[in-house]
Design goal:
Length: 82
């Protein structure tokens, strides 16, 4: 199963690209499984993933959200400023 992931902010530097297609194993992968796969693939990204929000389509979702083949996911780093 494939999920298309867009990385925003400093996350794209950790990955080296704005977009990646990620192959996920299993019948019912979740956002949590996607995050674990990305952490294993990109060690520089791993420590930042705990503070990242994930959107699938136009909706912010949690780690238990089930993914479907071809879903568009976006990883959003925390925003700060004043």
């Amino acid at each position: 199963m494939r999920v298309h992931v867009t990385f925003y902010g400093g996350l794209k530097q950790d990955v080296g690209a704005k977009r990646q297609t990620v192959e996920l194993p299993g019948d019912a992968p979740t956002v949590g499984a996607l995050v674990e796969t990305l952490a294993a693939r990109y060690p520089a990204l791993a420590e930042r993933l705990a503070t990242v929000a994930c959107a699938v389509g136009d909706t912010l979702v949690g780690p238990e959200h089930a993914l479907r083949d071809g879903d568009e996911a976006a990883l959003l780093p925390p925003v700060s400023g004043g």
